[in-house]
Predict the structure.
Amino acid sequence: MSLPTLGNSTSEVEVTNISSHGVWLLAHDKELFMPYEEFPWFKDQPVKSILHVEEPSPGHYYWPDLDVDLTEEIIEHPERFPNRAKST
C-alpha cells in the first residue's frame, strides 16, 4: 500500500509568543514583534484567535477571527502608517 505524497507545508507563518507587551510572529525565518501600543487589536483577545494567522500572499498576514490584516511593512514600520486604530 502506498500513501499519497503530502503537499507543501502551508505553515510558513506562526505566532511564537504572546506576552503582556505584545505578540511575536515568525514568518519565513524572520521574527516580527507587534507591541500592543502599536497593534491594539491583539490586546485582551483569546489566545486561540491570535494564534490563528494565515498568509494569503507573501508578506500579508491575516487573522480571520479578529478580522485583522497586516503586512510585513506595517509591522516593521508602524510609524509610516499614522491612520491606525488607537487603543481605548
